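S1.2 Input.
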Amino acid sequence: MANGQTFRLDLSKWASATQEKLDALVRQTCQEMAERVVRDTPVDTGFLRGSWQPSIGSPSEGTGPGVGAVSVVASQMEAGQRFFMINNASYARYVEYGTSRMAPRYFVRDNVGRFQSIAEKYARQLKVNS
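S1.3 Output.
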């Protein structure tokens, strides 16, 4: 009986430590991705860059805490949750994808393409095996 209890306690410790690492991986990856998107958002008046709305679980409807809260929102993430970054500037799509008169800027698309390498970097740091 004692061996069974020890095994159960060891397994519980392992599961808890693994969950903590996964949560940290999610937090750090979301934080860096969001910061990169905000940093790479083109600035003319500053409205586009300031219009990012971070949220967890569902997209913000434009009344969220704003770009200044990226760190706060990302720090609340847990593995399995969805992180959203919505830009409520009506012209954000045109700046990202361009128009017939304006070249695309790809400030979101380019960073989405970096997701895998960013996640892998934090997985290595946290010693999370894939």
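S1.4 Remarks. DSSP finds six helices and two strands in the chain.
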